[in-house]
């Protein structure tokens, strides 16, 4: 294939004519030696490249010694060549990407991939300041975007600070005493409700009303004593609350807890009035309570609004408003 430039000249045609034994060109000045002339042993034009540095790639069919079949095959190969999808030479685009552009594209691609897999809202060290940039609270570094922060988290400085903080927290945890945590109430399999007997009594001297409770726990565990407590009607959620009653609860494993509904009166807890006992042989829990008589108590008086106000001045004297 010949490489030539279009010229309209008579002097150059005479200079590079066929009489000199070189390429014979009518309308083109041959700059590079064509294959046809090279195969025939025709010498190359000297100084042509220096004289014509900017040339147009053309095929000179009138160059002496060029084979027509060879030109036809080269034209077919040129038609088969894909000029649109060559790297960096697509129509309407710039040239090949530089190293900086490739690195920037790679960082952007890695940033998008990391944002899909990592949730920055759960990162305790990620913070966005009032300027719109991002900060690492662990390393005290400033970042312009999320990708920069993600790249920082994979860096050596951030990893070292994470290891230091983990070691410090581990050391502090070993020094501080461990808090005593209760395991909660012991879970046992309940076998049902116990048997009970309630007796109404009255003191012959004071005429105080009393109740005697006898609860049987034949299957009570060893070294286990029944417990009891009083509960307000508003603490339970089994029945609608009634202000006239309160509940007496007794419990002993492995039986279910039972409650007795008693009048909401003040309990007399004197030594000879209130007592409980547990018989480990018969396994019977006994409890006696006395109620105090209702007494009418005067409610405290409401605060009175003052009718007169005495105002005094610094100079002495005063007046009543």
Automatic annotation (TrEMBL):
Domain Matrin-type: 134-164
The organism of origin for this protein: Symbiodinium microadriaticum (Dinoflagellate)
InterPro entries in UniProt: Matrin/U1-C_Znf_C2H2 (IPR000690), Matrin/U1-like-C_Znf_C2H2 (IPR003604), SF3A2 (IPR052092), SF3A2_dom (IPR031781), Znf_C2H2_sf (IPR036236), Znf_C2H2_type (IPR013087)
Protein name: Splicing factor 3A subunit 2
Pfam families named in the record: SF3A2, zf-met
Residue span of region Disordered: 166-191, 301-321
One GO MF term: nucleic acid binding
Keyword terms of this UniProt record: Metal-binding, mRNA processing, mRNA splicing, Nucleus, Spliceosome, Zinc, Zinc-finger
Similarity annotation: Belongs to the SF3A2 family.
Gene behind this protein: SF3A2
One biological process term in Gene Ontology: spliceosomal complex assembly
Polar residues compositional bias, start-end: 173-185
Compartment annotation: Nucleus
GO cellular component, one term: U2 snRNP
């Amino acid at each position: 294939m010949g490489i030539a430039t279009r010229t309209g000249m008579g002097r150059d045609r005479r200079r590079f004519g066929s009489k000199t034994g070189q390429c014979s060109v009518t309308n083109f000045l041959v700059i590079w030696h064509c294959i046809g002339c090279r195969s025939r042993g025709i010498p190359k034009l000297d100084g042509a490249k220096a004289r014509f540095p900017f040339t147009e790639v053309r095929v000179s069919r009138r160059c002496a010694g060029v084979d027509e079949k060879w030109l036809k095959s080269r034209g077919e190969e040129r038609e088969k060549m894909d000029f649109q999808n060559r790297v960096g030479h697509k129509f309407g685009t710039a040239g090949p990407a530089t190293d900086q552009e490739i690195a920037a594209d790679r960082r952007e691609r890695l940033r998008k991939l990391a944002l899909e897999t990592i949730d920055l809202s759960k990162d305790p060290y990620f913070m966005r300041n009032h300027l719109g940039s991002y900060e690492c609270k662990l390393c005290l570094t400033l970042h312009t975007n999320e990708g920069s922060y993600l790249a920082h988290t994979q860096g050596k400085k951030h990893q070292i600070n994470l290891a230091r903080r983990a070691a410090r927290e581990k050391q502090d945890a070993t020094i501080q005493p461990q808090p005593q945590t209760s395991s909660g109430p012991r879970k046992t399999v309940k076998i049902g409700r116990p048997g009970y007997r309630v007796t109404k009594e009255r003191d012959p001297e004071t005429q105080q009303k009393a109740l005697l409770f006898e609860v049987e726990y034949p299957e009570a565990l060893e070294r286990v004593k029944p417990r009891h407590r009083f509960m307000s009607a508003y603490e339970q959620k089994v029945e609608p609350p009634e202000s006239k009653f309160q509940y007496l609860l007794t419990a002993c494993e492995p039986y279910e807890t039972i409650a007795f509904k008693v009048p909401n009166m003040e309990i007399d807890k004197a030594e000879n009035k209130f007592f409980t006992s547990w018989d480990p042989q018969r396994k019977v829990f006994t409890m006696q309570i006395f109620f105090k008589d209702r007494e009418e108590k005067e409610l405290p008086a409401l605060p009175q609004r003052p009718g007169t106000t005495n105002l005094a001045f610094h100079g002495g004297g005063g007046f009543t408003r």
